[in-house]
TrEMBL record:
Protein name: DUF308 domain-containing protein
Top-rank lineage group of the source organism: Bacteria
Basic and acidic residues composition-biased segments: 31-49
Residues spanning the membrane: 94-112, 118-137
Biased composition, class Acidic residues, residue ranges: 50-65
Region Disordered: start-end pairs: 18-88
Keywords, comma-separated and alphabetical: Membrane, Transmembrane, Transmembrane helix
Length: 155
């Protein structure tokens, strides 16, 4: 038998069994029956009926609603609080103010139709450029000074 004839036979079997009913899926169920979720009906008074034949969760036996809280907390990651933002030095803060303050003033003056003389426009544009250049120069492109002798993978 050739590999091609094996494939043809497999396809014939698939086509022949296309309209057949599938076997009961519960026989091949990869989990135990006690983990199946039962559909609950709600009475008119808003309470769910108690079924003794349904499996009970051990968390249901806990008093004071701690079972509900445990179910809500299960699987949720609560990250630790982030560290405070660094304050930065005065020059960095002044650079950020100049970077955003110059264009913000020009936009505000244009929207409110304030008179803009040449020296005001020049100062706002110069503040923007100076703030940008200062932040880029202070950014630094070298490795941190405390990185030790091994600077990692260098490409």
């Amino acid at each position: 038998m050739t590999p091609q004839s094996d494939e043809d036979e497999v396809w014939r079997q698939i086509v022949a069994s296309f309209n057949e009913k599938a076997e009961d899926a519960s026989a091949d169920q990869p989990w135990p029956d006690r983990e199946n979720v039962a559909v609950e009906t709600v009475h008119e008074d808003g309470e769910a009926p108690e079924h003794e034949d349904e499996p009970r969760d051990e968390a249901d036996d806990e008093p004071d609603g701690s079972a509900e809280q445990a179910a809500d907390d299960e699987g949720h990651y609560v990250p630790p609080p982030p560290p405070p933002l660094p304050r930065g030095d005065a020059l960095s803060r002044l650079s950020w103010v100049a970077l955003f303050g110059g264009p913000a003033y020009l936009l505000l003056a244009a929207l409110l139709e304030w008179p803009m003389e040449g020296w005001i426009v020049f100062t706002a544009v110069a503040a923007f450029i100076a703030g940008f250049v200062t932040l880029v120069v202070r950014m630094g492109d070298g490795p941190p000074s405390d990185s030790g002798w091994d600077d990692g993978a260098v490409i």
